[in-house]
């Protein structure tokens, strides 16, 4: 654990009805014309139209770019940037899950820094300030609205690029749990497990601090107590609000503590197979936890307790193992895939996936050293 704690987070507006603050918030950032980045699912659910009503009431102009896909590709950034420049917008607002938010961050990056998005892969490659950014999440999982990450698929290499910079943290995050009511049960489950993986990997990260640990543990408690209920009922606002808070706290935690081997590995699966990030995490996370267990059993014991496991009278090692049991039970209860083979993974992909995972920035903060053979074996177990 570092003796010096640095913490990045945007202004956060949280709660039922918070969506009504988007117009006033954009005005405070000096916006005149807002470039809205979203996807067709969010448009069809009516949330973009709701946002537009508040922007109109604030006297703001806007342009909509909704050609964002799951696991957004670098070509979408190029298209979005062209639209942003042609429309002469002066600010950017993401309305959607992690994909629209990452696209919005990437467009903002290229709007002022030039080049191609591949130029910014890695850590701290952004040198010029970005346009004002607002983020309105419509899922409870990615946490992108408060992070210094943007994850984009390079179509040519068929892998996900991690772009990491404090410049990518939006100026304002507006989190309204009411928007979660239009999500399907499957998406609710997948995004919830994504938040779970963020909280766990941030908690055991080599870069964890007391500031990130408190957010990680709180997120884990909320997820354990509310994800099943949120999947079961779209209108359970108590569960939705708790999951929105869990996603937010897990996002703050991993934005500052970074992640680990699970995400380094999942990025390769998603980039090549175009799988949902939460589904891939559900398959890989338990096996990465098993691999990492010897590095920090005390922390895994605390994870087990946060997930509601009774560890009374158990040794640290026995209690730590219950964390993995709890994660597997949660994945099963919410109905997600429990093996990568179900998602299209094949043995022949493992060598290239393993090599690329070793280059992923998220692996740097994994609590246990891992080489190519270690990563390959985890992939095989997760099949």
Automatic annotation (TrEMBL):
Belongs to the iron-containing alcohol dehydrogenase family. The keyword Acyltransferase does not apply. This is Alcohol dehydrogenase. One of its GO terms (molecular function) is alcohol dehydrogenase (NAD+) activity. Residues 10-177 form the Alcohol dehydrogenase iron-type/glycerol dehydrogenase GldA domain. It holds the Pfam family Fe-ADH. Keywords: Oxidoreductase. The lineage of its organism: Bacteria, Bacillati, Bacillota, Clostridia, Eubacteriales. InterPro entries: ADH_Fe/GldA, ADH_Fe_C, Alcohol_dehydrogenase_Fe. The keyword Transcription does not apply. Gene3D superfamilies: 3.40.50.1970, Dehydroquinate synthase-like - alpha domain. The gene is EutG. It comes from Pelotomaculum thermopropionicum (strain DSM 13744 / JCM 10971 / SI). Residues 188-383 form the Fe-containing alcohol dehydrogenase-like C-terminal domain. CDD domains: Fe-ADH-like.
